[in-house]
Design brief:
Blueprint (H helix, E strand, L loop, with lengths): L1 E3 L1 H7 L2 H16 L9 E5 L2 E10 L2 E9 L9 E9 L5 E6 H20 L6 E5 L3 H10 L7 E5 L4 H11 L7 E4 L3 H7 L2 E4 L19 E4 L12 H6 L2 E4 L4 H4 L1 H8 L8 E3 L1 H4 L14 E4 L4 H17 L4 E2 L3
Parallel strand pairs: 1-6, 7-8, 7-10, 8-9, 10-11, 11-14, 12-13, 12-14
Antiparallel strand pairs: 1-15, 2-3, 3-4, 4-5, 5-6
Helix pairs in contact: 1-11, 2-3, 2-11, 3-4
Length: 322
Amino acid sequence: MLLLGEKDIQKAIHITQITDSLEHAYKLYHQKQFVMGQRMQLSTGENTFLLMPCIAAESIGTKIVSVFPDNIETPVTQGLMILLCGKSGQVKAILNGTTLTNMRTGSLGGLAVRHLAKRDAKIIGLVGLGAQGLHQLTAACKERDFNKIVLWNRSRPKTEAFIEKLKLKIAPDIDITAEDSLEKLVKQSDIVITATTSKQPVLPNNQHIYSGKLIIGIGSFRVDMREFPEALFKGASRMYIDTLDAKNETGDVIDPLKNAWMAPRQIIPFSNVIVNKVGAINRTDERPVLFKSTGMALFDLVAALKIYESAVQRNIGQKVYL
């Protein structure tokens, strides 16, 4: 059995390799070549515990995750990933689930940029400067040649430390600025990413500022969470979701359907884009395009398998014999 901590994972693989592997995961999802139930969620107040098992690609994976939004000294999202052989049931590896989650979720946003963003997108905005926001920008900057990043966070003291970490992960010539106004952030950005656990919409309820933009929602994963405002749903041409379970899991999909702000035909599995089942997006249409991710165990399994294979090949990690 191989133990892979944070530094091991970072040595073993680059985030673009995770992004590429998730393209394969979407194909498995579309072809239904997996076994996966809806993830189990237990909540106590603002805190959530999740159990996410899946079988695919001759492997078995189970991720155990805790999400504690008020954490300051420790990460908001923490966990472990257990990877087993699908033929023998033998445990092959235990991975740092926090690092795995951050990298694969960042890569999901990166894939949305790869397939949905305009080719000439130059400015990207981020709302929420946690660990997930850092990985979102890291992955996104591998998909487009941005010249500017605009940041907003409710806690301004956190911004400087975030910028210093971000500079280590992206091209040095990208300008990074912080905005006090969310409306100003949206207006100047070609792509906007929200990475919060807010229960109330974090973006302005002004339909006119979203024309032609790609809006990526990463943070809300519970029915009582929502990052997108009503006006954004009403003005959008379509919303891509990474899993059909999102229709039952997040307020960012439940609310617009329940209130008829969007029609069911406008909610499209993102796997349809990956396998070319839907045509190319008409980027002359000035209505915004939405991408909403809640994640699923299949992504974790495929990403963990890719990390494990790379670590074995490069002799990274600690071997443990039980």
